[in-house]
Amino acid sequence: MAGTLYITGDKAADGLLNKDGTALLIGMLLDQQVPMEWAFGGPAKLKERLGHLDARKIAAMDVDDFVAVCAEKPSIHRFPGAMGKRIHQVCVVLADEYGGKATNIWKGVDTGAELYRRLHALPGYGEEKSRIFVAILAKTQGVRPEGWQDAAGKFGDDIPRSVADIDGPESLAKVREWKKAQKAAKRDKPVS
């Protein structure tokens, strides 16, 4: 796996996301209520602290010990306790169901619907996060099972609206503009 995602502004952190499926899955998991760069930089911080991003080893750790690693300053997320527990839960699923490798979630999957189903079954992967991750895999990682665009929903189109559309500084700026415009439109909506 060697993708084109550009999000953190740190070449090593982006490189990790593009070559390690577990890092990418954890980065997307962390992408809520914090800036994208912070969320997707989390896997590199974890790897630096743990010396690995091995889902089996993380799953075998005591959850409180793992949360303590997530909470070290600077923490991996605004809510390191809750997100640390969720990362641990995802790693348990990876260890139990996917041989400890996130790439096994999408390896050999035949349809976008099946890929979406597998992602949506993960702790912390709701409908939108699962759809965005399908789009990330297709647009930046070359994983394009039949029907991926339907599974990705609106995130499968050409409008630069999510992390799935970021492959450099220019596209990062376009996604930020789109998000800013969406927030402004919501604020300007008359209350009925």
From TrEMBL:
Could you tell me which InterPro entries the record lists for this protein? Answer: DNA_glycosylase, HhH-GPD_base_excis
One of the entry's Gene Ontology molecular-function terms is: catalytic activity
Q: What is this protein called?
A: Putative HhH-GPD family protein
A Gene Ontology biological process annotation? Answer: DNA repair
> Which organism is this protein's natural source?
Kribbella caucasensis
